[in-house]
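name: query_chain
kind: protein
chains: 1
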Amino acid sequence: MSEADVPASRRSAARRAQDRRRRERMRGGGGGERYTVDGIGERDGWICGLCLDPVSKGYRHPDPRSPSIDHVRAVADGGTDTRDNVRLTHWGCNHERNDSTPLRTVGEAEAQRAVLLRIPGLREYAESVTALDMVRRSQARHSPERYRARLARRVERYEREGR
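structure:
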């Protein structure tokens, strides 16, 4: 059943439940602290932490160029909701990243590979790739150039649809 098939009352209840679970994770993950987009933007010099291009305060959601806050380490993965774990991004770059975090070390890649080896459908892939290859692919997938190109496509589609 797609989201469009779910009655609005059930959809909003599901969203409320999801928000409640996220707030509980945030409290359990070391608490949170108050911050604003403007405060984080000033701290980060109004530069997107993903594509490294300037972010303008003039755009508003749902424009992909609008300012957004990104958790460097996702709350769902144990990150905290603190100023030290957030950065300014374009909404489109943040949405593109979703909850994907780049692998930075071979050790991180080896840990992820060990998990993949235990999943029957991914075992063959995990056996065919080295940890170093996983780090290189992850870094390429999370490069500023790639985020910049994806943001440009989102902006083009947004403007073409006349939103």
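note: The helical segments are 8-28, 37-43, 91-97, 106-117, 120-128, 131-141, 144-160.
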